[in-house]
Amino acid sequence: MSAPVLVVGEALVDIVGAVAKSGRNGKVQATPGGSPANVAVGLARLGVPTELVTRFGTDAYGDQLGAHLFGNGVQLAPGSVDAKFRTSTATATLDAAGVATYQFDISWEPPTLSLSRGCPAVHTGSIATVLEPGAAAIHDFLKSLIDQPVTVTLDPNARPSITPDPVSTWSAVRELAALSDLVKLSDEDCEFLRPGQTPEAIAQELLTAERTQCVVITRGSGGALGVSRDIQVDVPAPAIDVVDTVGAGDSFMSALIAGLNARGLLGEKRLAGLGAEDLHDVVDYAVKAAAITCTRHGADPPTVADHTDRWGA
């Protein structure tokens, strides 16, 4: 078995409350979540060996998280489960269109970060990259990987409720992006971090960093844009009936990594040789993974079989 992809970041429980079309509150559900944890589950469901470095407790929510991660084949790094920690939560409220807004009760302090021999990729992002003391640990870890034969991917997944200042947040994103080979943003990230700038302009800004080779920007029902220094692809999204958008961006991210892994573009290659056809195909694969998730409740990323059943081989 090949060495696992390493995912670093928060695992928490999403407490999801819907607003029914009538305007009344709907049913409340507690489901495992956290952007990096969702990416780890998505990768494992797509057949990619995955290890998650995170931190949660042994309370009821922590037990729920642990069962979910182990049940989906995600390895947990040593120290990720700690009885001294209280498991974090995110309260997600869905509007009548199924779009989520979040309020967080979270602390973040990862166990020791290290790279296993042969690890093809390290992924991080979301709250873990901005909330101290863990954010500094992630920054130092990514700096230590500069000369290592591993591909680094980043999804800032901006949360204005946690980092309300877009100027300082963008500065932090730029610093982490410069340590990453691939950066994924959503259109909502772009609107918050760089208001008035086009997605193409934001991608080109990030690509000025020597290490950054590719930027992918998701646009909800508008599909996604993939940009490298000499390639740009625009991939439409399929028409679907949306249940909710919880976890859709994370499913996109995991499918993007899985698609690049299947093409042998991770590890020491660091996306070298990524051509227009490869970029289009991996972005299309990721768009369709996100679409499947949007047809289901909560952060429920697809398996390989789900892809085949819905979209064909």
In words, what does this structure look like?
It is an enzyme of class 2 (transferase). Belongs to the carbohydrate kinase PfkB family. There is one protein chain. This protein has 313 residues and is of the alpha/beta class. The protein has one domain (5-306): UDP-N-acetylmuramoyl-L-alanine:D-glutamate ligase, CATH 3.40.1190. Helix content is 33%, strand content 22%. It is built from 9 helices and 13 strands. It has helices at 35-45, 60-71, 134-144, 166-177, 187-193, 199-206, 248-262, 276-294, 304-311; strands spanning 5-8, 12-19, 25-33, 50-53, 75-76, 89-94, 100-105, 121-125, 151-155, 182-186, 214-218, 224-228, 232-235. A 9-stranded mixed beta sheet has the order 5-4-1-8-9-10-11-12-13, sandwiched between helices. It has a 4-stranded mixed beta sheet with strand order 3-2-6-7. α1 crosses α7 (248-262). The longest helix has 19 residues, at 276-294. It is globular. The chain starts with a strand and ends with a helix.
